[in-house]
Specification:
The protein is mainly beta. The chain has a single domain, classed as Sandwich (Immunoglobulin-like), CATH 2.60.40.10. It is built from 1 helix and 8 strands; from the N terminus they run αββββββββ. The strands form 2 sheets. The chain has a 5-stranded mixed sheet with strand order 2-8-7-4-5, with no helix packed on it. Helices cover 11% and strands 43% of the residues. Strand 4 and strand 5 form a beta hairpin.
Length: 133
């Protein structure tokens, strides 16, 4: 009886899917990346001033086909590479006329030709009254 119990325990433990070491992660496809080079999160600007926004997007796969800028979740502007339909690294400059005193969210997205997008990158800009009125 003891022998049968030992055999059953051995079979039970052998049937368990015990894994040694770290699990192997499943590969995930790379997506484009985008970042704000200027301005930095938390910057301030006077109302009515033009803000120059510098973005850098990259994609190791098919390349970046376009970059979109949204202001307060509303489409504002788009930039596309001029040299080809998509490029591995794309730097773009866009402008925004600061309107509306208070905080505004600037969001950038980079896209491949097939429509795959980056994760959104968002910064907050504070617009201050210009003080000249």
């Amino acid at each position: 009886m003891r022998r049968v119990l030992i055999i059953l325990i051995g079979l039970f433990l052998g049937a368990c899917n015990l894994q040694r070491g770290a699990p192997t992660p499943l590969p995930t496809p790379d997506i484009p990346r985008v970042e704000f080079r200027f301005p930095v999160n938390g910057s301030t600007i006077l109302e009515g001033a033009e803000l120059t926004i510098e973005l850098l997007a990259a994609d190791a796969g098919d390349g970046v086909a376009r970059v979109e800028l949204l202001v307060d979740d509303v489409f504002h502007q788009e930039g596309k590479p001029e040299v080809s339909p998509s490029v591995p690294t794309f730097a773009v400059t866009m402008n925004w006329l600061a309107q509306g005193v208070g905080q505004h969210a600037l969001t950038a997205l980079a896209y491949r030709l097939d429509g795959v997008s980056s994760a959104p990158e968002t910064i907050i800009i504070e617009v201050l009254p210009d003080g000249t009125s």
